[in-house]
């Protein structure tokens, strides 16, 4: 059953559908990337505070965004399993565009906070996009396909921050208007082009709130061998990754005295390195070392990259860590490939919803962990004068993930879809 569906899509729809999802994810992430160098500074301007105060409020904003992801993502995942991927993706993209307009016009910190709440709810299309990819690719090709989706994030977070830095120097609100235009253009494009990937006969028969609530969605992770262990690695990986949007703009400005354009250019270099890894290296590497090997390689270089970022005494040495850190891009595709093999077609949305819910939890905890640690370091330099200490915490989290991966990152006993859905 599974092979038949993949063959049909491969004949005429699979490649165009993958291209659309790639373009959709890229445009969405460009819109989010535009805000990276701008949002902390807009928060700082509206709060009329110091860098430490801005770090505190950025942490609050980020945690709220994560809370909305935690609550909404499993609902979106279940809805996509029940009603199809297309309506969920298009609704999320449209809501994202409207929300960017709302934040562009926000007159106070409170209004901006409300916009951030809405943004967290409408950004749930990424988990459904991953389910879409799982729908239209054979299990043995998913790691490569997930790598391409990861490359869209790399492109978006490469182009977006650079443009955001330039536009932000003109007006801190201008990037939000551009984000709205990008998201709404993307929605219009998708409305006319995006095909449905999950036919009615492969959908769940009813919408189950017990599985759609965040706690219920996580029960899926206990229902398949090693899935909970892989999800634990995903939790640690996403928690560590939260250090990037939480403190890096403030960190690079404070430690290396970089302006917005310089920060944007450093993120450009990071993004280009990640794109090279995701588009050129992941596919051949997975064929050679497997999804387990890709996961272990990604975690190893993530630890090393974070360590360089944390300990680099100069901006030049910091930049030397970029190619090392880029190899962390192996982590996500390897992990996603292993996880998607363990569930059937009608559970892919629920799986991605559960993954996004985990990401939401890390987005609640991570910003508080990293921003408060960073703010404490700035306010108490005599106690622990180590500005990169929060980044070392991130490195430690990835090291723990590596240890867990040694035990649970194994291919399923049956190649392809789980046995229960192959009959």
Explain this structure to me?
- It is found in: Membrane.
- The chain crosses the membrane at residues 20-42, 54-76, 88-107, 145-168, 174-194, 227-251, 263-286, 293-310, 316-335, 356-376, 388-409.
- Pfam families: MFS_1.
- The protein is mainly alpha-helical and 423 residues long.
- It has a single domain, classed as Growth Hormone, Chain: A (Up-down Bundle), CATH 1.20.1250.20.
- The protein has helices spanning 2-12, 14-35, 39-47, 51-83, 85-104, 109-122, 125-136, 142-170, 174-193, 209-212, 214-219, 227-241, 243-256, 260-311, 315-320, 322-326, 331-340, 348-379, 389-408, 419-422.
- Helix 4 (51-83) runs antiparallel to helix 5, helix 7 (125-136) crosses helix 18 (348-379) and helix 8 crosses helix 14.
- It is globular, with a radius of gyration of 20 Å.
- The N and C termini lie close together (7 Å).
- Mean pLDDT is 80; it is low at 1-11 and 414-423.
Blueprint of the fold:
Layout (H helix, E strand, L loop, with lengths): L1 H11 L1 H22 L3 H9 L3 H33 L1 H20 L4 H14 L2 H12 L5 H29 L3 H20 L15 H4 L1 H6 L7 H15 L1 H14 L3 H52 L3 H6 L1 H5 L4 H10 L7 H32 L9 H20 L10 H4 L1
Percent helix range: over 70%
Structural class: mainly alpha
Order of helices and strands: HHHHHHHHHHHHHHHHHHHH
Strand coverage percent: under 5%
* CATH H-level superfamily: MFS general substrate transporter like domains
Low-pLDDT runs: 1-11, 414-423
**Span between termini:** 7 Å
- The third-level CATH topology is Growth Hormone, Chain: A
**Gross CATH architecture:** Up-down Bundle
- Counted beta strands: 0
User: How confident is the prediction overall: mean pLDDT?
Assistant: 80
How many H/I helical runs?
20
The CATH C-level name is: Mainly Alpha
Indicate the overall shape: globular
Specify the biggest β-sheet: none
